[in-house]
Amino acid sequence: MAEHPLPGGTTAAKPSGAPAPDGGRRSSLADMGKEAGLAAFVALMLALPMGGFKTTEAVTGLSLTFRPLFVLAAVAFVFVGRIVLIVVRERRGVPRGDGGPGLMDRIARGASQGSTTIGIVILAIAIVMPFMPFSSRYLIDTATTVLIYVMLGWGLNIVVGLAGLLDLGYVAFYAVGAYSYALLSTEFGFSFWICLPLAGMFAALAGVLLGFPVLRLRGDYLAIVTLGFGEIIRLILLNWYEVTNGPDGISRIPRPTFLGLEFTRRPVEGIPAFHQYFDIPYSGQHRVIFLYFLILGLALLTNLFTQRIRKLPVGRGWEALREDEIACRSLGINPTNTKLTAFGLGALFGGFAGAFFATRQGFISPESFTFIESAIILAIVVLGGMGSQLGVVLAATLLIVLPELGRELAQYRMLVFGAAMVGIMVWRPRGLLAHREPTVLLHGRGRGAT
Amino acid sequence: MTQAASDNSVLLTVEHMTMRFGGIVAIDDLSFEARKGEITAIIGPNGAGKTTVFNCLTGFYKPTVGRIALHHPSGMMLLERMEGFRIAHRGGVARTFQNIRLFGRMTVLENLIVAQHNALMRASAFTVAGLLGLPRYRRAERRAVDKARDWLDKVQLLDFADWEAGNLPYGAQRKLEIARCMCNDPLLLCLDEPAAGLNLRESAELNEMLRSIRDEQGIGLLLIEHDMNVVMGISDHIVVLDYGRKIADGTPTEVRHDPAVIRAYLGEDEEGDLPPMVSDTMEVQPEGTDDNAGTA
Amino acid sequence: MAYFTQQLINGLTLGSIYGLIAIGYTLVYGIIGMINFAHGEIYMLGAFIAIITFLLLGLAGVTFVPLVLLLVLILSMLFTAVYGWTLERMAYRPLRGAPRLAPLISAIGMSIFLQNYVQILQGARVKPIQPVLTGGMVLAETDGFAVTLSYLQLIIIVLTVVLMVAFSLLIGKTKLGRAQRACEQDRAMAALVGVNVDKTIALTFVMGAALAAVAGVMVTLYWGVIDFFIGFLAGLKAFTAAVLGGIGSLPGAMLGGILIGLIEAFWSSYFSVEYKDVASFSILVLVLIFMPYGLLGRPEIEKV
């Protein structure tokens, strides 16, 4: 750190922290020890106050417990980890990221080119899953949750992945959809199939109204403004008692019906319930399976829509805007309108997902629509690979299923989550499965113009 | 086509344009004209305000004072009052950039199709027809691809059509940027240092291409260039700027013999006692004469 | 009038705290052009480290209040600065030159990570602390309403002014400050003329974190309770302050902080407490839309 930078600006690229080995020369044991020692010292400084002492609330106020083992473990871990890192890096000989297309790039390309096949296989599994002997209510419920996030991820992917607009308040549209659905169905008694499109439209309207003034802003300012909007909407939901019932939320939201047939054991007089109409024994699972297929359908709709629109001028316009807004303007593309369509359509799908969420839960409150929810959806898009449809499925499944596997893991879920966001950005700044398939080819695999 | 080329009516009139940034006057009371079927070059030392002129013409900046009139077939347009994307869309003014601006992660072909955005938007009935997959949109897209193919052929990039634009070599990126402008059906094509960073052979090809665009398409070309060989070789009309002011305006022969231009460009050779401002303009000369790539 | 003056004092105190956090945003934005989204978390860490050092000093038997305050301040600044340094080193430095959204996403990830890190290490419950410094002076008394300036408020305001002056001098007069301004203008050029860019950026994070730690100490003393979530709101408000003042400008950050503090104090006392955060966020949105260069910032000319 102390040496003078070389002229020619090479310092910026050099992995710093200690004198770097020049041209692949092995660093001596002493150097290695020094570097690892430095890292261990930093670890000590980090761990000592925050981990070494635990504050516990007691009747008399706060008390402290000393945890020397924790500090020791952290320091040792960092020391050893640093040495391993140095050795591995020198063995490989090249600094990170300079080795041409790596394994992950090839996987990403493969997944992207084979996405139709992979997609069909996944879809087939998704369709038969509820009828398999191992299937259970718990499994279908979890799969439904995964699908909600897949749908939200696909919706946000339009905004972030395709149009390159970082939206940190996506949950606002999810909330608008959910509350529109809840209010329309409880106050006016509209059925699910009327409320669903209305909820989506309200969310899209909110997207356009919010988007219009802010979409001129540069990328990071836009991110913060959308975050602000997300919080404003949540705070309004929380405080506007007369309409939203505040923190108590809205309960007894009507469940969806199958072409007017309800999923209840004892329906109201005159209208037969689902099991009566089809003359099968009543089972609580029917509704669960129905909801599962409902969200599967909605998610597929989102996916097909995105796949199609990506190959239309507006979709290409989004991607062009992501690449270079100034060039877009010089080609006569109206940046505001183009961004607005992305924002509005993203919000539309967020609204659909919100409506589904409301009808599935039967109860909603502002608690379900915090910033962390936006962050999770964003993480799904980013981790999967911005713009990659398959990546979203992968990331949503991982993020929802992993904590379900071990309940003890649940408290570490968000910790791992944040670390993964950082790690994946550092490792692959464009996301895990980031490989872009061209929307049209001149020579390549057939002329895929439509 | 020959008929179009013989039409040399005035396409663009810039009158008394001044652009100030805070206290700095980047362009000072500039007036000039550009004609259809002609190549008009704007030259001048570094910092003379050439790119600022382009930015004003294409709506990225609004000039502090002045009028920019485009004589469009559908009527006269005052560009200083229009938003940038409208100038490109309605006015048909296309431009390239000094530091190339391609859609790097999209393919070469996609770059050229994005350039036809507005036409395709209409054909897709603002996405509705496209979503439904109506034949009218599919036909329009096929036409767009054909047009892109024609231009790729003209700039000899046909084999690279499915490459990511960002992976093209430098010279090819320059050519692609021009082809992208042409797919936008411009009336006036503004090129910001198209020869920068090209080697001699590429530079000669570029000259050929610009001439053929002028002669075959009959549009107006506006060119910023440092390289005097390029400028003198292909321009029909040259405007010389120095410190934001126009110091000469005329045919290459006239400009070459203009004493003010000689002073601004060659002052060092002729006079022992340099005015301080000329000294830094001299940096331009060597850059123009050697074919050292990568100066951009 | 008395009520008004009291709110003015409260607002100034709050504003000083926001201002100190805002400086961290502004310095970092100035030098690498990114929003350090995790900066609010650094402030939260500062508050936790402050509470832990308080307790430790109590156990060690140090009771002389000025000494306690000084030690807590120094230790919190030191330990928090290490967090700031590590943050830059691990989450941002590898991403220089990456696509522009990558560092912001990395910052959000870091923010989530740090929140949960503290929640796991220290528990999710609110941490209360016994008041260290009590008392104050009555400035005026009308209609039975006393305008008081507590000693703590006085310390907060005075300390903020002192730090502000010190940091302005640091950036205006020292070699480090010159290196920072050079990096701000053109990083590649700064490296060419011998500025150690990595070191300069790292030091900027260290400075920002140290100031956030001061804010953390103050908030711990002032409110008497903290939890792992305080960084989110305070961070957003401080960011608003930085933008309002003109991001990249040091006096701007302070001015913005004080304005936000005042607005919040007056809004809560004259309008509604429930909507006080809505007011802050609305200001954020309005400022970004209508005056993205803030009060003291310089407009950027779009480079084409």
Write the layout of secondary structure elements.
The complex is a heterotrimer of chains A (450), B (296) and C (304).
Chain A: H1 29-52, E1 53-58, E2 61-66, H2 68-92, H3 103-113, H4 115-128, H5 137-162, H6 171-187, H7 192-214, H8 219-239, H9 241-244, H10 274-277, H11 285-309, H12 313-323, H13 325-330, H14 335-361, H15 371-384, H16 389-405, H17 413-427
Antiparallel strand pairs in A: 1-2
Chain B: H1 2-6, E1 10-21, E2 24-35, E3 39-43, H2 50-57, E4 65-72, E5 75-78, H3 84-89, E6 93-95, H4 108-114, H5 117-123, H6 128-132, H7 135-154, H8 170-183, E7 188-192, H9 200-217, E8 220-224, H10 228-234, E9 237-242, E10 245-250, H11 252-256, H12 259-270, H13 276-281, H14 284-289
Parallel strand pairs in B: 3-8, 3-9, 6-7, 7-8
Antiparallel strand pairs in B: 1-2, 1-4, 4-5, 9-10
Helix pairs in contact in B: 4-8, 7-8
Chain C: H1 2-32, H2 39-60, H3 65-92, H4 101-122, E1 127-128, E2 136-142, E3 145-150, H5 151-173, H6 175-185, H7 187-192, H8 197-223, E4 225-226, H9 230-245, H10 250-270, H11 276-290
Antiparallel strand pairs in C: 1-4, 2-3
Helix pairs in contact in C: 1-5, 1-8, 1-9, 1-10, 2-3, 2-4, 2-8, 2-9, 3-8, 5-6, 5-8, 6-8, 9-10, 9-11, 10-11
CATH-defined topology of the largest domain in chain B: Rossmann fold
Using only C-alpha atoms, the radius of gyration of chain A works out to 26 Å
Give the CA-CA distance, first to last residue of chain A. 56 Å
Number of domains of chain A: 2
Strand arrangement in the largest pleated sheet of chain A: 1-2
SSE string of chain A: HEEHHHHHHHHHHHHHHHH
Fraction in helix of chain A: 55-70%
Q: CATH superfamily of the largest domain in chain B, please?
A: P-loop containing nucleotide triphosphate hydrolases
The helix count of chain A comes to: 17
- What is the distance, rounded to the nearest whole angstrom, between the alpha carbons of the first and last residues of chain B? 35 Å
SSE order of chain B, one letter for each helix or strand: HEEEHEEHEHHHHHEHEHEEHHHH
Assembly classification: heterotrimer
Average pLDDT of chain A works out at 82
